[in-house]
């Protein structure tokens, strides 16, 4: 019960946090790679500044949704100044719960005629 309550306290996720979790869902990334991935996934609709990204990363770490990882790419592909981040099991769970929440909102919007029904 306490785990569900702690998850409920995190929701709804801030859009920036949700996008960061999505970016880390398929692989560990460093900050600039997260910015690039989010920009690519959103067709440049979302372009995070470094300040916004690192404030969000700090909050996600404090919430236990992501961690800084020690796993690094091969030295010839790495820059030792980079910090790499990984989504946690709790972070994946939070992203999944957020997707269900958004899906439910979309269903409500469709039922009210705000969003066209798909065929």
Helix content: 55-70%
* Main sheet properties: 3 strands, antiparallel
Give the topology string: H per helix, E per strand. Answer: HHEHHEEH
Strand order of the largest sheet: 1-3-2
Portion of residues in beta strands equals 5-15%
Alpha-carbon distance between the termini? 39 Å
> Looking at the chains present, what oligomeric state does this protein adopt?
single chain
Could you characterize the architecture of this molecule?
The protein is about 55% helix and about 10% strand. The model has no long low-confidence stretch (mean pLDDT about 90). Helix 2 crosses helix 3 and helix 2 crosses helix 5. The chain is mainly α.
Notable traits:
119 residues; 8% strand; 56% helix; three-stranded antiparallel β-sheet; mainly alpha; 3 strands
What topology emerges from the helices and strands here?
Layout (H helix, E strand, L loop, with lengths): L1 H9 L4 H11 L3 E2 H11 L8 H13 L3 E4 L14 E4 L1 H23 L8
Antiparallel strand pairs: 1-3, 2-3
Short description:
This protein is 56% helix and 8% strand. It is mainly alpha-helical. Helix 2 (15-25) packs across helix 3 and helix 2 crosses helix 5 (89-111).
């Amino acid at each position: 019960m306490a785990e569900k309550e702690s998850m409920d306290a995190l929701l709804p996720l801030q859009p920036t946090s949700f996008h960061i979790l999505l970016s880390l869902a398929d692989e560990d990334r460093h900050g600039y790679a997260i910015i690039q991935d989010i920009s690519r996934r959103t067709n440049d609709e979302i372009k995070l500044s470094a300040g916004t990204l690192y404030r969000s990363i700090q909050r996600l770490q404090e919430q236990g949704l992501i961690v800084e990882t020690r796993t690094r790419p091969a030295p010839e592909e790495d820059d030792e100044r980079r910090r790499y981040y990984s989504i946690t099991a709790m972070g994946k769970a939070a992203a999944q719960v957020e997707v269900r929440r958004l899906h439910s909102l979309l269903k409500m919007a469709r039922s009210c005629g705000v969003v066209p029904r798909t065929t």
